[in-house]
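look at this one:
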Amino acid sequence: MYTVKRLSDMAGITVRTLHYYDEIDLLKPTQVADNGYRYYDDAALYRLQQVLFYREIGLELLEIRDILDSPDFDLVSALRSHRDGLQARIKRLNNLIGTVDTTIMHLTGEVDMSKKRLFSAFDDEQQKQYQREARLQYGPDTVNTSIRRWNSYSELQKKVVMDEGEQIYQDMADLLEAGIAAQSPEVADVLDRWQAHMRYFYEPTLEILRGLGQLYSSSPEFIANFQKLHADLPDYLTKGIEHYVDELEYAEIERMLAADADQSAKG
């Protein structure tokens, strides 16, 4: 059996998060002692692993709970699916890394490289694949709305939007440089602006925001751009956005629970 502290250390999440998972019936302790201490067995550990895997691909907590509680959920099948998804992500990232490495060698004079190869990881077929994946993950309406919305702006409007975005990331870099924690209220204030800024492109759901946060420290293109502002900015953004979205999600679930309780009281 594992104490809540030991499980939080093993999984790299906070005790508060585990308590919250208990509250929303996502991960119940196997046993609660008379003194209130929570204990978890191996089955709970495997369930938590699944929760973290699904969080990694951007699902929200209540969606994960429904998947794991489904009568036809199979742990081995789920792990195989996670593995396939991770392998596909590794392949895409390796292609991008290869292009970055070759570009570096070209710029430093180690190899001659045609301008066409500068974009070998971003050819038409790959772009179509990214678009297909975006449509599958976020839905065609979100992707199509984003394209139409951006194309509707004038060149001046596009510049204003881009300048605003650059200022947001610069402000995040300034907070990082000042030693402000990624989970601080100051960072949350900037991320409020960031979330509002995303509405220039699409309605930013929690799933999309969380996915962007993960992409900022895993995509070579994003990493390279953000490191121009501060070497540690990609990881700082990911941590800040993860915490920010968690807080939004907690607040939303608490509103839902309060509404259910109010409805039950009236009934």
User: Anything to note?
Assistant: The chain has twelve helices and three strands. The CA atoms of residues 165 and 197 lie 7 Å apart. The first strand starts at residue 2 and ends at 3. The longest helix spans residues 233-266.
